[in-house]
Design brief:
This protein has a two-stranded antiparallel sheet with strand order 1-2. It is globular and about 45 Å long. The chain has one domain (about 1-260). The chain contains eleven helices and two strands. With about 260 residues, it is mainly α.
Length: about 260
């Protein structure tokens, strides 16, 4: 059952994230957590997430706008290092709100509340018609990279803010997808260097028998989803991409702000 559920989610969400630029880790981690302890789910998701980003880079990276990558991802990588260094400090802070929904207790961390509100705000730039022609001047790309990278290093959430800035940076559809993918790889590598191997070594020491096969299957399923996404790329308009991004921003932002994610 876990193979069917995890792999189905990986295929569908990976295809969508090719357009949105984020969402695989957010959805896949809770799916792994249905069958394994949360620390194991986080570590397993990290493997699939990075492998899928590298695979997507091979598929669509050539479409990237490299000047935008340089102005956006390099500041983002530097900020991701700072965010990762601050992660332990913020992790020790108590949640600002705790509530019970059914039998499950949800906690809202301050950093997730702030990011969630920001993301929901950004979503209106993609969903409301009055903002359809709005574009951020490219001089704001380093600022967008700094914000995206910092929150990515701090909380693991970088894609939503990255997409919110790049979708309004005046890029063509293919350039947006390629630029977002390459930027994700650069920031991922920067923050993973800071996190180091100690967490993953300790976590994977606790892996249940057979999880390695499930991780491999989920990774291959995510590859399949990314490949399907590339086949659909020419049939999808930029407005459709904006709507996909906007809807996923609302879902992720609301989930973070409410403590569900």
């Amino acid at each position: 059952m876990e193979y069917f559920v995890v792999c189905t989610v990986a295929v569908i969400v990976s295809a969508l994230t090719l357009f949105s630029g984020f969402g695989l880790g957010t959805v896949l981690m809770p799916t792994f957590a249905l069958f394994f302890p949360v620390p194991v789910a986080v570590a397993a998701t990290a493997v699939v997430h990075l492998a899928n980003n590298l695979f997507k880079a091979a598929l669509v990276g050539r479409k990237a706008d490299w000047p935008v990558v340089a102005r956006f991802a390099l500041p983002g990588a530097a900020a991701a290092i700072l965010g990762a260094l601050l992660l332990n400090l913020f992790a020790s802070m108590p949640p600002v709100i705790t509530y019970r929904l059914g039998v499950k207790v949800h906690e809202i961390a301050l950093v997730n509340l702030v990011i969630g509100v920001l993301i929901v705000g950004f979503s209106f730039l993609d969903l409301l018609p009055r903002f359809e022609k709005l574009a951020f001047d490219r001089k704001y790309l380093p600022l967008g990279g700094l914000l995206s990278g910092f929150f990515g290093g701090l909380s693991g959430l970088q894609g939503a803010l990255r997409s919110a800035f790049l979708i309004k940076a005046g890029l063509e559809k293919e350039a947006f997808i390629g630029t977002s993918t390459i930027s994700a790889v650069i920031v991922d590598l920067a923050r993973l260097l800071v996190y180091g191997l100690s967490f993953y070594t300790a976590t994977f020491a606790r892996i249940a028998p057979g999880l390695g096969g499930l991780i491999l299957a989920a990774t291959l399923a995510a590859f399949m989803g990314a490949f399907i996404g590339t086949r659909l790329m020419k049939k999808v308009t930029l407005r459709t991409v904006q709507i996909i991004v906007g809807i996923m921003l609302v879902v992720v932002g609301a989930g973070l702000a409410s403590g569900i994610f």
